[in-house]
Write a sequence for this structure.
């Protein structure tokens, strides 16, 4: 009975949190399961950086209306994706969204500019990729929320504007970069509901057996981990130990679903996802922590770095996930930058500025390594499923 009450209390807490949030800047359960990421949380600038100008937040809306112009960009780079966004501006609005740009330099030159402007002198009006591809006629609806759905898949670009497809084009100039929002002085622009789903992720677990994975043992372990494939998931009990892929990656997007099978309200199974380590070497490389514990009822106070935290380097800013239910974890490693999302909510945004080398404890490791799942201790009991990955291209 106590266990049932505990589970019901957790469900009630989730419902209370969901009801308190505004209707926008949220992901549905279906979107979370599909791998969508909330690019902007509706409350803070976490995961974003300003490049000139100032932006403000009001009522879950990101507003550009400062005295000086500039742009706001993600700190994470993306390659292939579907991006959704809503904007609101006046009839003479002049703004844009940057796709696959670099964090340095002019974003409309280092990447693509998706136009928000109806009077471009060369005809690259709203919905167009400026200087690359013109959209069919599309007009800003002034003072109302307009929507974009942008698909960037390799060299292919598709743009749906307010429910109508306005662009279908191909260009291979820029393969990867950050997402940006433009503000031109005197042309107020507002954004909300910025969501992105990475594309082209491929399974690294077949759902039936451990083909493609290798067990790595630790000496003198009293309760060695028991790894198995059951019910479409990788199941592990006991530990310590690890299970690693035979293949290796350096820059990548990884998504997986995890369930920490807790035996009671004080048991929070401890695990992690290691990457860029050495093959066959125990618990090497960076670790994205898995532990759904927080202090004194405060989800913003993670215990032991918290689920999604970059262990040793940056704790999760919020513990989003709960024990005894599957949650989706996304890890993006690109060069020195590592970012993580839990259930589509970004919890870590870490840049390793140390000198490059092989030892993560003392150096920034950029070299490839396997993906490893951790069995932490004898109380370990977890399931991992729907493990998918895609490599990220290198910027030229």
């Amino acid at each position: 009975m106590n266990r049932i009450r505990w589970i019901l209390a957790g469900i009630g807490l989730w419902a209370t949190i969901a009801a308190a949030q505004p209707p926008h800047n949220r992901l549905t359960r279906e979107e979370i399961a599909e791998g969508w990421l909330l690019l902007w949380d509706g409350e803070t600038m976490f995961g974003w950086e300003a490049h000139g100008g100032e932006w403000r937040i009001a009522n879950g809306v990101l507003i550009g209306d400062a005295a000086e112009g500039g742009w706001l960009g993600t700190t994470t780079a993306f390659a292939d994706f579907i991006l959704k966004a809503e904007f609101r501006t006046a009839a003479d609005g002049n703004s844009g969204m940057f796709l696959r740009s670099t964090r340095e330099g002019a974003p409309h030159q280092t990447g693509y500019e998706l136009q928000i402007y109806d009077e471009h002198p060369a005809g690259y009006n709203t919905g167009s990729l400026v200087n690359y591809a013109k959209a069919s006629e599309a007009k800003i609806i002034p003072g109302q929320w307009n929507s974009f759905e942008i698909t960037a898949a390799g060299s292919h670009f598709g743009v749906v504007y307010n429910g109508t497809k306005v662009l279908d084009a191909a260009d291979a100039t820029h393969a990867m970069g950050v997402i940006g929002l433009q503000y031109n002085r005197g042309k107020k622009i507002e954004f909300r509901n910025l969501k992105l789903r990475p594309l082209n992720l491929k399974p690294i677990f077949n759902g039936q057996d451990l083909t493609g994975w290798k067990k790595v043992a630790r000496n003198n372990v009293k309760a060695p981990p028991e790894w198995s494939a059951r019910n479409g998931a990788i199941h592990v009990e006991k530990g310590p130990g690890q299970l690693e892929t035979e293949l290796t990656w350096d820059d990548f997007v990884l998504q997986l679903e995890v369930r920490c099978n807790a035996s009671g309200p004080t048991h929070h199974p401890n695990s992690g996802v290691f990457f860029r380590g050495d093959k066959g070497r125990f618990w090497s490389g960076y670790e994205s922590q898995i532990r759904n514990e927080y202090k004194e009822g405060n989800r913003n106070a993670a215990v032991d770095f918290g689920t999604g935290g970059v262990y040793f380097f940056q704790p999760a800013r919020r513990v989003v996930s709960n024990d005894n239910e599957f949650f989706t974890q996304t890890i993006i490693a690109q060069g020195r930058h590592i970012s993580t999302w839990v259930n589509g909510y970004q919890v870590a945004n870490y840049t390793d500025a140390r000198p490059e080398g092989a030892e993560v404890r003392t150096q920034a490791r950029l070299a490839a390594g396997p993906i490893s799942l951790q069995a932490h201790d004898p109380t370990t009991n977890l399931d991992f499923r729907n493990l998918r990955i895609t490599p990220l291209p290198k910027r030229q």
Observations:
- Helices lie at 2-20, 29-34, 107-110.
- The first helix runs from residue 2 to 20.
